[in-house]
Design goal:
22% of the residues lie in helices and 23% in strands. Strands 1, 2, 3, 6, 7, 8 and 9 form a seven-stranded antiparallel β-sheet that branches. 37% of the residues are buried. A hairpin with a 2-residue loop joins strand 4 and strand 5.
Amino acid sequence: MGYINSGATAISAAPKPNKTILLGVPFISQGNTMLCEGTSLLQALHYKKIATNQNLMTFVKSMPLSPNNNPNIGFSGDWRHNVNGTYQGIKPGSVVKWGNQTGGKLTNISGATIQTLKGEIAKGNPVVTWVTYAFAPAEHKRMFWGDAIWNRHVVTLDGYKDGFYHVVDPVFGPGWIAGKSFETAYNVSRLAVLVR
């Protein structure tokens, strides 16, 4: 049986435009401190209109500190400057406690997939994400509390578009990062805190 032209024109669906989501989280500089986690958290809180009366130097006063340099229970090392041979940072569980004490609604979503992060961004929720400094390959070092990424860095994820993610980096400022670079750095540990 042959094709009969009824006069109708075949219409193909137009390709969907690439979707761009950009929340516009405000940039706060961490300056010469080691406070990338705290600064990224404060950026996300300010976006949610929380702790807007605090700057980084007042905010850090409420940061939990680790008595034995275990970043799982508080900030390890000295936040004021680099100390050679010491892991300096704080893990998601303590960041959640810190942010919630400030009035935020935070959840530790460590282990979340990239799709989950994008879904939260689409809902208007920034995500504090643990990556590597300048998105370089991870430098692993074994510590008594577990695997330390020696060139660890933390940024606020607040947007995405086709092939790119938007981060507000407390050192380098806001910008678009190539998708593969962000995903590789994030997937090293998949540590993340959702700020609602």
